[in-house]
Every structure is written in C-alpha cells, then in structure tokens.
Amino acid sequence: MRSLLFVPADSARKLDKAMSSGAGALIIDLEDSIALDGKARAREAAAAFVKEAMANAARPYLMVRVNGLQTGLIDADLDAIAPAKPDAIMLPKAEGGAAVIHADAKLAVREAQNNLPDGHIKILPIATETAAALFVAGTFAGASARLIGLTWGAEDLSAELGARANRDGEGRFLDPYRLARALCLAGAAAAAVPAIDTVFVDFRDSEGFRRECEEACRDGFVGKMAIHPAQVPIINEVFAPSAEAITQAQSIVAAFAAAPGAGFVGKMAIHPAQVPIINEVFAPSAEAITQAQSIVAAFAAAPGAGVVAIGGVMYDRPHLARAKQLLARAPSPARGAAP
C-alpha cells in the first residue's frame, strides 16, 4: 500500500470516484469527516459500500476508519461494518500496543459472530494523535497479528497540545510534530511493520506535497495518506522504486547469492579510478587462501571432527565455515575440492 485515500463514508459520489483513483487503499471514514448526528447513516453507507466493493476483483484494499476507543462509538462502528468483511480498520488515537490489543478483542468477537476467520480484519493504528500516545509509540511490537503498519497524525495532536499551528510558513512540520513523525517511524521499525506518512492538507500545493513525499520516502516511510484523488498519482510515483534502485538491489542480491554466508563482498564505485583499489582490497590474499585451503583439507581428512589442529593452532567448525566463504570469493582455481 503506497497510497491510502481518505473518503467520507457518507458521500456515495466520492466513494465511487475513489474506486478509480489509483489508490492502493481506501480509508472509508466514520470519524472526523462525519458529524455526530450523521454517524448512524454513515455506518450503513460504509457497510453497503464495502460489501459491494469486496466483490470487485480489481478493488483497492478497503479499510474503515472507526471512531476511537475513548469515544464510546467504536462498538456500533464494528457492529455495522464487520458483516461487510473489510480488509482492515484504521484505529485513531491509538495509545500504544494496549489499544491494539483492545481493538483486537473487539474484532475477534465480531468475526466469530459473522463466521469470519479469526484475524481476518487487520488493524492500522494512528499512533501519535494524543500526547500520551507519544510516550508509548514503541509498544506496538507483538501486540497483535492483525497489526499491518503504523501511521501518524498531527492535526489532533496539535489541538491537544494547544498549538496555534503545526507547520511553519514554508509548510514544514514544527518540532513537536517532527518528533511524532520520528516516533511513528521508529515504532513501526521496532514492530517490524511498514510506516505510512500522514496527510498533507493543502491539496492544491502539489510542489510542497511532492517534497513531503520525497522526504518521507527518503526517511523510511513506504507510503502516504491522501485527502484528495489528485494526490494519489504523486504518491504512487514517488514511493515506487526507481529502475535504478531496482537494478542496484538485484545486483546486491546476486552478489550475496554468489557468496552464501558472506558479509560485505565488494563495494560500489562512482569513478573508474576506484575500481583497482576495490578489486585489490576485497580479493582474498594468497596467504588467506592457503590457510583456508588448509582448514578445508584438514576437516575433509577427519570427517565428523569438531576441531582440527594445524601447525599447533586449533580450528573449529565456525573456522571451517569462514574458510569456505573466503574460498567462494577467491578465483576458481584456488577453491579446490571442498567437503
């Protein structure tokens, strides 16, 4: 999921348009974009839309942003949408792993009631919308198998902090929100899940939006949320790996595949003058090759041995593994026969 587009649940026109937006995921919103007296109608609309859209083979990932655990509204949200079998919920104002555990339990009940497999509905928390949430952003690891990522938000946080603004005159986040952003990124890494960047509310500022996408991609976010369909193509473009990056990654994978178990096997150069130095430094020395061959030969002569002695020095199985790794990087005539 590179691009995640927010769509208010009570707008059939926007929901229909979102299906062809190119977004990797739709976030059907029951929270901030829906007034309190419209929640019930929005739940019905969200459930009907998800149920119909799930039958579309070419559909995007379908997620519903429910109301927070603290609101008293989430149970009615889940009762309405669980029968439609959405892919996930977005959990706002999530205060650490404990909030995910709580939501997991609620989902498990609805899944059982609707004959859904346990764990079918995943969870994407918004991890930084309250001051308390900042202090537990590192507690999501292991909270639930439903956890599919972490994202963050600055709008609710700025209201809670009593701030006059969350961005400077150039549209860049101020320090409290840069902290929240960093905590989301670190929390996601600690939980081994993707980090998704927050929204950019000025959808007419395409230049500022692209800059923010590029900075997020640079720092480790794998996607970004959008509030308007016009933002989706920019997200998809910026967060898609370039052909150059793909080629480089393939080269690295191939290098390690050619030398199983090796550490660093070489170095990239940006100028031809660097190449001879790289070749010299990373090539095993004649002395190292001879020693490695001796270790391999000694173990070959004593099958099953855990330790061998060569010239008064004891070598064990880890030495054998390293010797084989070194010979794998050496010119082929040096490799000889290995057990």
Account of the protein in words:
The chain has 339 residues and is an alpha/beta fold. It folds into 2 domains: 3-240, Alpha-Beta Barrel (TIM Barrel), CATH 3.20.20.60; 246-334, no CATH class. It has 13 helices and 10 strands. It has helices spanning 12-18, 39-53, 74-81, 97-113, 131-134, 155-161, 175-191, 206-219, 232-239, 243-258, 275-282, 286-301, 317-329; strands at residues 3-8, 25-29, 61-65, 88-91, 122-125, 150-151, 195-197, 223-226, 307-310, 313-316. The strands form 2 sheets. It has an 8-stranded parallel β-sheet. A two-stranded antiparallel ribbon has the order 9-10. The radius of gyration is 27 Å and the shape is elongated. Mean pLDDT is 92; it is low at 334-339.
* Largest sheet: spatial strand order: 5-4-3-2-1-8-7-6
The CATH C-level name of the largest domain is Alpha Beta
Q: The biggest beta sheet, please? A: 8 strands, parallel
| Secondary structure: helix percent | 40-55%
Structural class from helices and strands? alpha/beta
Number of helices: 13
The CATH superfamily of the largest domain turns out to be: Phosphoenolpyruvate-binding domains
CATH-assigned fold name of the largest domain: TIM Barrel
- Termini separation: 46 Å
Beta-strand segment tally: 10
Envelope shape: elongated
Enumerate the spans where pLDDT stays under 50 for 5 or more consecutive residues.
334-339
User: What quaternary form is this?
Assistant: single chain
Residue-averaged pLDDT, rounded?
A: 92
The number of domains: 2
Radius of gyration: 27 Å
